[in-house]
Amino acid sequence: MNDILDPLILSRWQFGLTTIYHFLFVPLTIGMAVVVATFQTAWYRTGRAHYLQLTRFFGRVFLINFAMGVVTGIVQEFQFGMNWSNYSRFVGDVFGAPLALEGILAFFFEAAFIGVWIFGWDRLPKGLHLASMWCVSAGTIMSAYFIIAANAFMQHPVGYVINQAKGRAELTDIWAVLTNKVALAAFPHTLFACFMVAAGVVIAVASWHLARNQNLETMMPALKFGLWTMVAAGALTVLTGDQLGLTMVDTQPMKMAAAEALYNTATGKDASFSVFTLGTPDGVHELFSIRVPYLLSFLSTHTFNGTVEGINDLQAQYTQVYGPGNYKPVIWVTYWSFRWMIALGVGAVMVSLAGLWLTRKGRFPQQRWVWRIATWAVPLPMAAMIMGWVFTEMGRQPWLVFGLLRTSDGVSPNVTGLEVLVSLVVFTLIYGSLAVVEFRLIKKVAQEGPAAPAEVDETTGEVKHEVTVY
């Protein structure tokens, strides 16, 4: 019973569930803003009506998702003060700076231009109205960078000093925080993954309509756009992920060792990457494994003879530096979340490559199962991103701020387990209800399809009798 009502465990569960739930909306918001801006740019440059239809159609999806993301994000930030007050007191002077920039600059920037875009359809010149959507996209990307910079401080703290009298970290160099090498590596990797998520939604919606032979003029171009975006973004996600891996080895070698469940330091051929392994949790007995020789060495050092430090050696090093304690994350979580992240992302790209092949040179597959697979593949990139964040955060354990503050020391001292449990249950019920509302709203919009094409003046290219996005 004591474990069930442990404030630390419950607070971790609550923050983890809240973060994952909020994260359902973030990648789609970032990616879909670029998608809408791209379709509107195509309409601006070509004047073709189907691009205008796609702009309006996916604009509605974007706006629904954005509204839900704002609500869940606010609740998430409240938890820093409610459940993690010791963490907030210790690192708030540093951690709060990029979050403040996110709120003051990025969020208000994107929110203001969203209003301009919604209500400016029949009030602004086409060029200015298009610029407002690109400003929204820039705002969402800025917002993502500031949040990633805040998280990067937890992974690799820089730009601070410890005030021993006050017992907290204090900001000395905001530029160092914003240019943290972990943030610089994680940002493009996250951004391209967001484009994969948005592409997955475009593919799914287009496939649903094409399976029913409806809205062909708009959905075939949308499908092609989604498929090519998925493949391109997937390739860039892999390349940027490689650079993030090198940064991870440099700053958090224990995380890389945990990703492979590598207990003993290995070099060259012995530093292999296991595609699949069965064994004892302590790594002593390996029952079955499928391995690729040299691959872990290459991923960690970009050489085939590089040395990768193992969990046991790193545990001994950390004990000497930080004192007695268990500095190993939960190995099975890091091991499998890392592989599921890769597998789900690769799966999304493979579905898109198959789609490009099946629809090459104007071909139109008649088999319903082809379109069904494309429609139901939409969760793959989103699930891959969630697995990536689970790996990132769980791989940092037992640290809340690596090398500075343990997770067990960051929880609020006066919050009881019962209070956290009650709020956890309430949040879960409310968020579950909101998830149903979100899904039904987007599903309804997606199944309705694009509105009839607006009347366009052939001479000026201006839209006649224009109305707002709703």
What does this structure look like?
With 470 residues, the chain is mainly α. The chain contains 15 helices and eight strands. It has helices at 7-23, 26-46, 49-82, 85-119, 126-155, 174-178, 181-210, 216-251, 253-260, 295-301, 311-322, 331-358, 368-376, 379-394, 417-448, and strands spanning 160-163, 168-171, 266-267, 273-279, 286-292, 307-308, 399-401, 405-406. The strands form four sheets. Strands 1-2 form a two-stranded antiparallel ribbon. Helix 2 (26-46) runs antiparallel to helix 3, helix 2 runs antiparallel to helix 5 and helix 8 (216-251) packs across helix 9. The chain starts with 6 loop residues before the first helix and ends in a 22-residue tail after the last helix. 41% of the residues are buried.
Write the layout of secondary structure elements.
Layout lengths: L6 H17 L2 H21 L2 H34 L2 H35 L6 H30 L4 E4 L4 E4 L2 H5 L2 H30 L5 H36 L1 H8 L5 E2 L5 E7 L6 E7 L2 H7 L5 E2 L2 H12 L8 H28 L9 H9 L2 H16 L4 E3 L3 E2 L10 H32 L22
Antiparallel strand pairs: 1-2, 3-6, 4-5, 7-8
Helix pairs in contact: 1-3, 1-15, 2-3, 2-5, 2-7, 3-4, 3-8, 3-15, 4-5, 5-7, 7-8, 7-13, 7-14, 8-9, 8-12, 9-12, 12-14
What labels would you give this structure?
disordered C terminus, mainly alpha, 470 residues, globular, 15 helices, 8 strands, single chain, two-stranded antiparallel ribbon
Which percent range fits the helix content?
55-70%
Radius of gyration: 24 Å
Q: Report the order of strands and helices.
A: HHHHHEEHHHHEEEHEHHHHEEH
Q: Within the largest sheet, what's the order of strands? A: 1-2
Beta-strand content estimate = 5-15%
Shape: globular
The oligomerization state is single chain
Largest sheet properties? 2 strands, antiparallel
The overall strand count is: 8
Mean pLDDT: 85
Number of helices: 15
- Runs with pLDDT <50, length 5+? 465-470
Would you tell me the structural class of the helices and strands? Answer: mainly alpha
Distance between the termini: 52 Å
